[in-house]
Amino acid sequence: MAAGLQPHFDPVADTISDLAAVGATDRWVMSLVFVLLGVCYIGTALALRPARVPGRMVMILAGVAGILVAANPEHAGGFGSVPHFVWATIGFAGLTTWPVAAARRGTAVPWGLRPAVAAGAVAVGFALLAWFGAELIMAGGQVGLAERVLGTAQAVWPLAVVLSCYRRMQVPAPATAVNATSNA
Q1: Are 16 and 154 in contact (CB under 8 A)?
Q2: Nearest to 76 by CA among 6, 138, 161
Q3: DSSP-H helix ranges across 103-114
Q4: 3-state secondary structure at position 78
Q5: CA-to-CA distance for 50 and 32, rounded, in angstroms?
Q6: Tens digits of per-residue pLDDT, 52-80?
Q7: Average model confidence (pLDDT) for the chain?
Q8: Strand (E) positions, 37-132?
Q9: CA separation for the pair 147, 129 (Å, rounded)
Q10: How many CB atoms lie within 10 A of CB 136?
Q11: Rounded alpha-carbon distances, angstroms, from residue 170 to 49, 163, 164, 173
Q12: CA 148 to CA 154: how far, in whole Å?
């Protein structure tokens, strides 16, 4: 919606921060999205009780960083806001690394919180973050695309973890020998 309100916006070449930059048309739309997304990450971290506390804290920090990205917009025409860059970097780093800090060991752990799965999620996240960083530094023309792919992965992974936890809660407990004999 924010991109549709912004004239001459190229979603492949332009970042989503451009949509909230000082001087952007209806910049309040993207700023509101940054705030709401930050609040959603914070809420997800608070509700994700099966995850280890350090991972939940990293996700909370990333959510707060997203809110602070909105509070520190880019200047019209590109890079120019150091606080925006710092908070965006903290947010991207936190959303990339939280899965390993949240991982747990054990047979009853939901698959999304298992160490090997979390490490795989972080590896994919780092690859996407590297692509985004390379596009930013090299001005390769696909920075918007790289950012959107990275952002989508960072939004989808917490959902996948939550669903794995929910699925784990829905699996009935196995019958014990005591229960089997009392039912006979």
Answers
A1: no
A2: 6
A3: none
A4: strand
A5: 30
A6: 999 999 999 999 999 999 999 988 665 67
A7: 88
A8: none
A9: 8
A10: 15
A11: 16, 10, 10, 9
A12: 10
